[in-house]
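user: Please review this fold.
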Amino acid sequence: MSRPTTWAPADSGLPEARRTNEAAGYTAVGVTALLTGYLATSYGLRPVLELIGVVFVVAGLALALVVRDTAAHVALELAQHTKPLPTDEDTGLKATFARTSWHHRSLRGANQAGLIDNLNDGLTWGVFPLLFTDHGLGLAAVGLLKSLYPILWGLGQIPTGHLADRIGRKPLVIYGMLVQAVGFILALAVLERPLLAGLLSAVFLGLGTAMVYPDLIASISDHAHPAWRANALGTYRFWRDIGYAAGALVAGILTDALGLNATVLTAASGFLAARWITEHTKD
């Protein structure tokens, strides 16, 4: 297989729509965490929280009926693309999965960073509630901490996505992973004051994730030709979202060593991103 080409998308402001979508999604996660913490304290774990889930499912299905397909947008971009697809480049799922997962250096760098980023999120959901509850915080306080992280993550993607169009994706990915690593250090460094430890870790993890999240998926799109971009994004999201499962496993196995392992993995991921990811070139 020939070396994949670096492609510049037709729209140079690629993170604009993606950051808005991601911001809405993760801000909603944060608001829900805050709401459920309050409701669990007031009404218990059942049945009110289950009814909220039913409402969300129905709302999601209803919205799916009115969302328009974007195939026409892809067709227009293909028609206007400045470089044709090489005749020997396989656009099938198998070839694109291998290209995105390993063969293409920048895509490989984005995949590993996405996996570790979501592994961190899985760790915080699995361990932080137990950690801070064990140190005296109640359900409402834990709900506040768990809401602050995704709210900052969600809203923070608005300015970071904008900044990525100005300075590039790579700096935000690298420094975002390092900021997350600091969040884990702070969670344990001041644990004798659990509320402060939780607030500091939530702020750093939220801001670090906001720096990383919209720019990784934009970096994938930067380097993927429109003909195989959907498969590339699917591959990236496979590796990124499998991090949730990995985080849950790590949370169960490495709870006693949370700070050390999470910090080392996150910082190492940032350095790998610095080595592998390159900025896309404009045609």
